Amino acid sequence: TKYQKFPGFACDIEVGNPTPGLRTTKCLAKAQRNQCWAVQTKPDCVCCQTVKQVNTTFVHAPAVEYLLGFPCALNDECDLTIIQSFCNSTTSTCECNAGYVEYTPTECIIPLNYLETCTDNQMSEKIIGDTCSVNEECTLTIALGICNGTLQCGCASGHFAYSDTECIAIIPYQGACTDSTMCAVSILNSDCIGSICECPSGYNYLDITVSCVPEMVLGSTCALTDECALTITGSFCNGNVCQCNAGLISYNDTFCMTKKIIGDPCTADAECLLTILNSVCNAGTCQCDTALVPYNTTSCMTPLELNDVCTNDQECQVSVDCSYCRSSDSKCQCKAECVEKIVSGVNICERPTTTTTTAAPVYGDGPRR
């Protein structure tokens, strides 16, 4: 005998005859898993899984065993055979009631937490990081979750953990946000500022690591050269410390520059003083300070006069031409070929004047005119 559900009728349990106009399909208590069926397509209903009299005949009408995921039209179709289930009107399939998860195809249970009392093999509520064997173990309680290659509950590709039980799409730098947690799970150290993901004060965005990194100064601990170069011009990460590139020197902990020599362009005295002793930045170039003279390209000194104490010829020559440092008494003296003279109250060494003479023409023995 073929038994089919007969919609639009309910069982009259006492007699077994259909009662028109009722929408329910129940015939006994829900716990007894009973349902009404048409016998051989006739509008006669019997109670399933029980023996009831239909007219003068006793018949046994078996119930259809609905499982989670089966197509359905009414809640009763699901909850008669599936504990704590309903028929989802959107998907038209049997699903677990809110707050319940699948335990078996015919039973939904409240998910259990770690270390909570359970019966053998009863399913616990999975959170991100828990061990798993199939995706379904994770997706039951983790939005957009998967069981990843390491057999742990994680987030699907392109998503990050927003909480222990929720994954959200990756938010790009300066993408829209509603709270800082949304930003931080996508961009390390970022905050939701003005409804967009930004780096907080004291941090800068680094593309290569998709993170906000602290503003570095020379000497800061680093892992990548990019971390240093974001805020320190001409720097690199050497031995996990931000340092100036080869040939450059620190200017103010956030700037590495080339070493200045006398005559180089500058914007401040400090740029010159880093490498030129007693120098200043004057008219946009590094020069010796007032009343000083260049000793070499990187130092300035007080000019010496004749008979001043000296240590080498250079000290004398930078201020007195044609002089040298006499070793016998370590004093500046004129070289032998030069003559000491006083000009405008200052002793100088005068070089000898070179006289050019024109030789008389030499004529041959030929005729002269």
Automatic annotation (TrEMBL):
Which domain of life does the UniProt lineage start with? Answer: Eukaryota
Name a Pfam family for this protein.
EB
Against InterPro entries, the record matches this protein to: EB_dom (IPR006149)
Q: Which residues form the EB domain?
A: 155-203, 253-300
PANTHER family, per database record: ECDYSONE-INDUCIBLE GENE E1, ISOFORM A, FI17111P1
Quote the protein name from its UniProt record: EB domain-containing protein
Which species expresses this protein natively?
Answer: Cyprideis torosa
Q: What is the lineage of its organism?
A: Eukaryota, Metazoa, Ecdysozoa, Arthropoda, Crustacea
